[in-house]
# Entry
Amino acid sequence: DFYALQVMNTILGGSFSSRLNQNLRETKGYTYGAGSGFEYRPLPGPFVAAAAVRADVTDSALVEFLKELNGIRDSELARAKAYLTLSLPAEFETASQLAGQVAGLLLFGLPLDYYRSYVPRIMAVTAADVRRVARTYLHPDRMAVVVVGDAAALRPKLEALGLGPIRPLEVR
# Structure
C-alpha cells in the first residue's frame, strides 16, 4: 500500500499540480498553497491536509477540502507517477540529503537497495490501487479539523457545515 499511498497523496495534495492546490489556490483563490501528506513514522502517523486561507472563506475552503478528500479520481494517475519518479533524483543531490535517505531506510528497516525497485513499484500502481487506499485510509467522517482564527467570527459558519461538535481551545 505504501507506493499506492504515495501516488494517491501526490494526486490529492502532494505536489503543486495536486487537486487541493489547484482547487483552493488556482480555481478558488483562497490560499497561496494547499497540500497534504503522510507523516511516516515507525508506527502509523497522521495524514495531514492543510492550507492557510483567508478568514472569510474558512468554511468554503473546508467544504472544498472535504470534496477533494471524498473525490479521489484516477485521471491524474500518470502525472502523479511521473512526478514521483522524476523528482526522485533530487532527493540525493547533496551529502546531507543522501545521509537523510539512508537514515530513513535504517529507521524503517528497509533494505539498502530499496530505491532500486522504487520506480518500478510506483509505475505499477493502478487506478484501482489508488481508489482502494483512498477508501482504506482516508476517512473524512472521522477526521479532526483544526481551524485557527477568530472563534466568534468563524464559529457560526463552521456550525452551519454540520461537521460535528466544535471544541474551542485557547493557546496560552
